[in-house]
Hints:
7 helices; 3-stranded mixed sheet; single chain
Amino acid sequence: MAAAQIYNMLMDYKGNVTVKIDGLAASAASVIAMAGTKVLVSPVSMMMIHNPATIAMGNSAEMQKAIAMLDEVKESIMNAYEIKTGLSRTKISHLMDAETWMDANSAVEMGFADEIMKRSEAEDIDVPQVSMVYSRASVTNSLMEKLAQHCKIEKPAAEPVTDTGRKADDLLERLNLIKNHF
């Protein structure tokens, strides 16, 4: 029932609704997808439709009510599929009975989707000049330089940290130089 409400909310929206299926739209999600003005599927996505299901408990009369309810739910789901795909109700019913799985091509062929998403042409993008490589020595050296600038002291005479094995000793030595400055 929640899928029906979401479908109706999207259908009531005055603007265009683009649905992008980038993984799996199965069961109730496939119904929601039918509300899209345009339904786009990733080349590696899937869609699955099936008959509604429920859990019922009780006597024969209650079981008959559950069966009748499932038949009505199926009819309402078929409405959404029929509006989007233009397929006959008989064809849609058979697809649901068979629990039909569709890849992107099948979904477009049968009308459950409008087109397969494609990579957009890359524009000229400025490549950032910042290195994304993490280096403990670089971080330590940068920190020490910033501390020295902030404290307005001369850069320590020690060489920059290059060997991570002596990094801790060098850091302590530099911190002591800053501490002794005050």
